[in-house]
């Protein structure tokens, strides 16, 4: 049996897709918003974010307080400097006068002053033993008392300062006359320390002397 050739052709199927339609343009919207234009949106600042105005409001009172405090301190310093410049030399003069008056009065009473023996020996060495111990002690007492009174009262101050300069030579001379005795083995004794403290009296006398000669304290601006 002859083979039967059959041709099968599939039925043609045509698939149709709907073409999307473009929505109609809104002329009013196109007129308000240009094409290809991005409009940014603004966000209100958070209440927790500090602003320049709030910082200025916070720092202004602090700066004002600092300025007032600085002005108050400077005013106090100026006042203190003025008081010291006016009264410090007078206070130094009175204190120096009290010291010398006390030293001098004690020497009027034998055996009372701790520097009695040192004063007698020093005057004896300086006068080549022409002045006896009792006279040396009395002379020292008179000189120191006069110095103290002139410094305390301010009367005859220049004459008192001249006496002070002479007395300081005698006061400091034991450092030379009795050096080995005052500094055994290189260390100062109690008597040596007593004499060394008179360096402060000499410096104070120099300051008072400069003031008596017309020098005045001046505060730099």
Automatic annotation (TrEMBL):
InterPro entries: DoxX
Topological relation to the membrane, as annotated: Multi-pass membrane protein
Superkingdom field: Bacteria
A single cellular component GO annotation: membrane
Region of interest (Disordered), ranges: 1-62
Cellular location(s): Membrane
Annotated keywords: Membrane, Transmembrane, Transmembrane helix
Broad class of the protein's primary localization: membrane
Transmembrane portions of the chain: 91-110, 130-152, 159-179, 199-217
Biased segments, Low complexity type: 18-62
Protein name: DoxX family protein
Organism: Cellulomonas persica
Higher taxonomy: Bacteria, Bacillati, Actinomycetota, Actinomycetes, Micrococcales
């Amino acid at each position: 049996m002859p083979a039967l050739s059959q041709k099968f052709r599939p039925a043609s199927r045509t698939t149709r897709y709907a073409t999307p339609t473009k929505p109609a343009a809104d002329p009013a919207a196109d007129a308000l918003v240009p094409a290809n234009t991005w409009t940014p949106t603004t966000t209100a600042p958070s209440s927790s974010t500090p602003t320049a105005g709030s910082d200025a409001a916070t720092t202004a009172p602090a700066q004002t307080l600092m300025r007032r405090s600085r002005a108050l301190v400077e005013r106090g310093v100026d006042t203190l400097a003025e008081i010291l410049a006016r009264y410090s030399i007078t206070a130094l003069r009175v204190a120096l006068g009290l010291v010398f008056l006390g030293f001098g009065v004690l020497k009027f009473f034998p055996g009372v002053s701790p520097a009695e023996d040192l004063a007698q020996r020093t005057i004896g060495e300086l006068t080549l033993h022409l002045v006896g111990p009792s006279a040396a002690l009395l002379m020292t007492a008179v000189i120191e008392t006069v110095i103290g009174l002139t410094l305390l009262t301010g009367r005859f101050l220049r004459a008192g300062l001249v006496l002070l300069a002479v007395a300081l030579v005698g006061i400091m001379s034991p450092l030379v006359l009795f050096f080995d005795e005052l500094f055994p083995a290189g260390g100062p004794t109690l008597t040596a320390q007593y004499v060394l403290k008179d360096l402060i009296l000499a410096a104070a006398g120099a300051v008072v002397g400069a003031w008596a000669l017309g020098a005045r304290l001046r505060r730099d601006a």
